[in-house]
Amino acid sequence: MDTLDGFAAELTNKRDAALNIFDGVIAHVKSIRDQLTLAAAELDKQQRLGGSLRARNQAEQERVNKELAEANAELAKVRKAIEAERKQWEREKESVRRAFDDILAGKKVA
Predict the structure, then answer these.
(1) Is the pLDDT assigned to residue 83 strictly greater than 60?
(2) pTM strictly above 0.70
(3) Average of pLDDT values for 42-47?
(4) Helix, strand counts (H, E) of the chain
């Protein structure tokens, strides 16, 4: 009987050790689950934030593009005005040159 009692005690010890191991594994799995839950929540939060930032950046980019288009249109107007002034200046300069040449040539200037 002593052998059976010893065997039963050893089995009980092994069972308790196995239960301790299983309890540790279960606790570890629960910890991993909790960490994954937190990571999923953080990922969701970051994705929402990223979407918000993308939308804000896109709106800002559109605003800047509109301002740039307006500035380019204004620049084109200014360049056109400058070119018109330059041509007018050239015409007046040529007119003065002809008048000066006519004076030097002794012709009457109107």
Answers:
(1) yes
(2) no
(3) 97
(4) 1, 0
